[in-house]
Amino acid sequence: MTIEQRLAELGIVLPHAAAPAANYVPTVLHGGLLHISGQIPFDTEGQLIRGRIGDTMTMKEGEAAARRCAVGLLAQMQTALGSLDKVLRVVKLGVFVNSTAEFTDHPKVANGASDLMVAVFGDAGRHARSAVGVAALPLGVAVEVDAIVAVHAG
């Protein structure tokens, strides 16, 4: 089964990869690793998912926002590589959670992104990860996720 077939089985439709909002590129391929800039969450209608976990959003809503960030990562991979079948392994995710100082379940929020990578890529989707709380994120979004992915050469 191809990764594209797996996405269809999971009911995931990839959006167009988001264009950079400032002076950076969305991806850099170097030495067999694809570095993907932080992706912010858009819902299926293309609207930003804004809020602060522990204040205006629940942990479960944050987890869903992290999953939407992961969908954005997949879209960036597809655009950069031409096919998700070129992904050898998801190496690392960095998950930034817009949360109150009292909120401490950042890893549970991050699972929204991690679980999707495993669902799509199987064991190759298992990765190292950082999950940290931050005071604010661009445009007031709830979560931002970046990634490093090992890819087939050529």
TrEMBL record:
Bilayer-spanning residue ranges: none
Gene3D superfamilies assigned: RutC-like
Top-level taxon in the UniProt lineage: Bacteria
A Pfam cross-reference name: YjgF_endoribonc
Domain Endoribonuclease L-PSP/chorismate mutase-like per the UniProt entry, residue ranges: 4-140
InterPro entries, A to Z: Endoribo_LPSP/chorism_mut-like, RutC-like_sf
Name of the protein described by the UniProt record: RidA family protein
